Amino acid sequence: MNFGKIDKKDYLIPPFAFFYFYLVFAAAFHLPTVSRQELFHSRIASWAGVLLCLAGLLLLLLSLISFGRSFRVGIDQTHPDKLVTTGIFAFSRNPIYVAFASVLMGQFLLFSNWILLVYLLAAIWLFHRQVSREEQYLRGHYGQQYSEYCTRVSRYL
């Protein structure tokens, strides 16, 4: 795992992630939290949130299955493996990030707290930042093979 070896700002992620998980559990189990203010309350939005969470978890599972033994966290320059372009990666170049974004969006629709909205927006920005870093590495490492893959498969959806 190369967490923090390439970009030291990665060490800022865990405290924010733990706080996020606490906010979600606090909303779900009525624990003390920073804010209980809901931006909206809708049964339809809540069910859409549940469906997005389930879809995100399914997409994450399919991504891990498709990755197989090639799974890496971050950019692993010391142990590169073959470029994975099959399974769910035949439909999206970044299904894990799409899965995480789906779960975060679903949680926001369920608990519509302004703090979760800030987290959702920040996460989308961070995911895109990481995807850009990974794409730069993949282009350099796999060259034409990756370029051809990019023309066949969209970045996210």
Describe the structure.
The chain has 157 residues and is mainly alpha-helical. It is 62% helix and 0% strand. The chain has 5 helices and no strands. It is elongated, with a radius of gyration of 17 Å.
Short description:
The protein has 157 residues and is mainly alpha-helical.
Radius of gyration: 17 Å
How many structural domains are formed by the residues? 1
Biggest pleated sheet: none
Number of strands: 0
Secondary-structure element order, as H and E? HHHHH
The proportion of residues in beta strands is under 5%
Helix segment count?
5
Mean pLDDT: 89
Rounded to the nearest angstrom, the distance between the terminal CA atoms is 27 Å
Helix content: 55-70%
Low-confidence stretches: none
The shape is elongated
Query: Helix/strand-derived class?
Result: mainly alpha
